[in-house]
Every structure is written in C-alpha cells, then in structure tokens.
Amino acid sequence: MEHLFKKIPQKKVSDKVFEQIKTLIITGKFLPGQKIPPEMELTTLFNVSRSSVREAILKLECLGFVEQKRGDGTFVKSVTQAPIQDYMEEMTGEKDFLAGLMETRTVLETWAAATAATRATPEEIRVLEKIIGEMENHQTEKMGYELNVKLHSQITSATHNPFLIHMMGSILKWLATITQRVYAGRKKYPKVKQELTQQHHRIVKAIAERDPEEASAAMTDHLNYTLKKATKNHDHL
Fold this sequence. Notes:
The protein is 68% helix and 3% strand. It has 237 residues and is mainly alpha-helical. Strands 1-2 form a two-stranded antiparallel ribbon. Helix 5 crosses helix 7 and helix 5 (97-119) packs parallel to helix 10. The longest helix has 23 residues, at 97-119. The chain is globular, with a radius of gyration of 20 Å.
C-alpha cells in the first residue's frame, strides 16, 4: 500500500501565515479596502519571524488578495475585483450602463439593508451610527464621497455574507473613483448633502430598529434618488 500514498510535507511557517490571512479575507473578516496590520504587528500576533510575514504578504499580493501601497500599508482586495473592474471599464461608455449598474445595486443593496437589520451586531450598528455622525459634520467633498462608500460597505459587511461582501467590495471600489464627479458639483446643489445624509440616516435607523422592510424601502428610495441626480447631472454614481 505504501506506493499509493505520499508523505505529507510539513508546511512552511510563511504558508501557515498566508493561509490564515487568506481565510480571513475570503470569509469577509477582513473587508475589501481594509488595511491589514503592519508587518511588525503581524510578527507579534503570529509569533513568527518578520521574513515569514513578508513572504506571506508577497504571496497574497501575487495571488490578488491584497495590494501594497508605498508608504501607506497593505490593503485587502476583493477576490472578484479584477473581472468586474475589467467589465465596467469596457461598459462605462455604453448608453444603458448607468441604469443597469443602479438596477444591480438596488437588487444587492436592498437585500443587504434588510438582512443587516436582522444580522448586524450591536458593535456594527454603533459603527454605522458613527459614520452618520461623520456625514453630518464633514467639511470636504472628498470626505463626503469617502464616507458614502464607507457606509455602504459597512452595511454590506453587516450581512455577514462573504459572497456579497466581495461582490459589493468590487463594485464600490470602482464607484469610489467616479462618485467624485457628483460630489465635486455639490456646491451647485446645496440641498444634496442634507438630503443624502437624511436618506442614509433613515437606512441606519431602520437597521438599528431591526426593521428589514423599512431598511429595504429606505435603501430603494435612496438609490432611486441617486440615479435621478446622476442622470440629471450627466454623472455616474
């Protein structure tokens, strides 16, 4: 029987580090766009050498799980990012692109809002409420669209559905690069910031009150408003 089996080699330490971080990413414990702890902190957390951590991070980057930004750190990538990104780049100039994109967001995000209302932990609700507070007080356009993306990402995270987390991570990462056009013209529309904040507040309130129907309705109204504004201003959101 010996010829039928092969000895199982002992894994390198760096491979064990790689597997742990990869699992955290795939299961949605580390969210797309989230910064992972720096090398030295990971060295302490895993109780391994710095070279093992560095080798694991390099492998994660080569396989598309993370990206390293010089001077800024290492960030999680959505595992579905590349194919969706390529598709959107090809489709962005098509006539019905915006409507199709918003229909897709409506399907995914209304379900996300409703599901978050039943699954969100108290800590996740506190995070959502904190973001709303930041939205009410932010001073710059850049903060405005960054907080918008952050809130939608956190709602998706509160579903605890890793498939949806990665799908929305891909879509929202791409949207973040073009929502700037809408926010850049917000000074011409002074009511937009207030209206968007009120809409987001309604969504989070419904989630906090464990009301999935209201959360879904609030998200639908918000996305319909977004589509209307984006179409009127000839921008994409």
